[in-house]
Predict the 3D structure of the following.
Amino acid sequence: MKILATVKRVFDTDGKPKLTADAKLDVSSIDCKLNPFDEYGVEEAVRLQEKGIATEVVICCVGPEEAQKEMRTALAMGGDRGLLVKVDNTESLDTLSIAKILAAVVKKEKPDLVILGKLSTDSENNQVGQMLAELTGYPQATFAFKLTPDAAGGWAIVGREVDGGTSDVKVKLPAVITADLRLNEPRYASLPGIMKAKKKPLEITTPEALGVSVKPAIVGIGYELPPARKAGIKVASVAELVDKLKNEAKVIS
Amino acid sequence: MSNILVVAEHLEGKLRKATLPTIGFAKKAQALTGGKIIGLVLGHNAASVAAELATAGVDHVIHVDSPIYANYLAEAYAPAVAEIAKVKGASIVAAPASTTGKDFLPRAAARMDAGMISDAIEVFSHNGAVGYKRPVWAGNLIARETSTSAITAVTVRMTNFDAPAAGAAAPIETIELGFAAPEHTQFLSFDQVKSSRPELTDAAAIVAGGRGLKSAEAFKMLEELADLIGGAVGASRAAVDSGYAPNDWQIGQTGKIVAPNLYFAVAISGAIQHLAGMKGSKVIVTINKDGEAPIYQISDYGLVADAFKAVPELTAALK
Ligand SMILES: Cc1cc2nc3c(=O)[nH]c(=O)nc-3n(C[C@H](O)[C@H](O)[C@H](O)COP(=O)(O)OP(=O)(O)OC[C@H]3O[C@@H](n4cnc5c(N)ncnc54)[C@H](O)[C@@H]3O)c2cc1C
Ligand SMILES: Cc1cc2nc3c(=O)[nH]c(=O)nc-3n(C[C@H](O)[C@H](O)[C@H](O)COP(=O)(O)OP(=O)(O)OC[C@H]3O[C@@H](n4cnc5c(N)ncnc54)[C@H](O)[C@@H]3O)c2cc1C
């Protein structure tokens, strides 16, 4: 079974975002990293390879040349090779454009399983996997916390985290899975892993070479900061808290 | 035509409340685009849902009844939503930003070649088009976006739009689509967390616990407090990961987004990913034994105390 695991280079959202005078995001002092949700996707692919279920794991990213760094981080966890679809300004691409590019990659690579993160921690769309599934005609199992493939049978059973509980679905391979945070516990790359990753093949291609041209439908028109919340007061006792809740905030009668 | 299609969410013959803010969103969008608000029910033996939806503020209801919608699957929903959107001339297709809406709507959007906005919290007029606001960056930034595609798909955050006032019953139209059941996906089971408490997303009060509680048993004291004030129980991711609480209770970037009148954060440190899910609460109360925990920076009332002492004391005081 061949697996394609996607990774996105995201802005590190631990830092507080700053805006420029014209309401753009000032990213000059913000670091980038591998999208945390993609670490779970890569980990799952690597585990399936270690168990002998996956025969090949390809790491794919749509992004600028700098994104090779995040791809090497993923390759240090495991996997065989990387495929970077070079787009200098990924910010100008919407989810459907990314999904169209990934669909062209799927057509070329023909994986049995495509694993994406469920969400990017910076732009938080939670769309790309589902769109990719439609564009490729593959079934989808989103928000996966448990993945049990039966490669020989050509199926996978996926446990999904959904509102109200959990749900199991059975998907026929090839399929698209999006990873939630309880799928596994991603490893820290070992030193030998990091050394090995440096030597793994990393092919660079372009949307044009894949035969896709995209025109994003969603256009960013600026940012604003959410209203700030102020710290309130500290109370000294449960009695004082009850008094405040009843008589000041009036949220308890 | 520029109608607005709202895909209703339902469970066991009842309209899920999550649908109502989406209709509230549609009302605001309608003020900008004109057209009709069309509610869509995909289900099997769900006539009761269609009837409920008809009085929930929509102009028209479409009911598609087929066994293939008996158990929700994105692969069944997406083609149906795309087809109805086309036939009914929708320019906006909206659904709640629930795990269901987030699952099928991007798939439907790709089918319609539509741009998609996730988690809309506001709509506004932008150069004659519709502009949308949505939180990104774990809630620390709000992006303004607009769409240039003929149809735009939108998931709507449950906490930011009011449910419209109930109105006279809109007409219900029954349509047959004739799609076959998805061949490559099979629904196996839904393991529901049964609870007599209100749903987190529409509870007026929430008592949430974190890793500091150290066991599932300790959550019982939160449940007791929640029951006393008619609230729901929530949890941090660390508490869920540790097995103290079910995943359905998780609040935050990866869990539920809530905005109750009253939020108790008990033994929760206040990581940005947790705050992303509860910052919109009206009054936030923190009980944490560490007076420097970041959660105090956004709390209205903080009590620096051991939860195992303070929570039972609080429950007793409110009895
Ligand atoms: C400063 C800034 C400006 C932006 N401006 C715009 C704009 O004008 N219009 C607009 O539509 N968007 C804009 N974006 C969003 C950005 O282009 C998104 O990366 C893109 O829309 C994909 O959305 P997402 O990552 O949130 O997708 P999600 O659906 O949340 O991603 C889910 C998963 O899909 C996979 N994935 C996503 N992207 C990639 C990728 N590039 N390569 C490989 N796998 C991937 C990953 O596995 C990821 O876990 C902007 C972002 C920033 C930070
Ligand atoms: C991509 C990503 C997504 C995430 N999504 C979410 C999300 O959706 N929701 C979420 O919650 N987290 C999320 N997280 C995790 C988040 O970063 C934190 O790790 C998590 O919120 C911490 O949970 P906590 O506050 O319960 O635990 P801790 O940070 O360990 O805090 C425990 C607190 O309990 C206090 N305490 C201990 N004992 C007692 C006692 N006896 N009485 C009173 N107080 C006590 C301590 O002082 C401490 O402040 C996400 C992380 C990532 C990377």
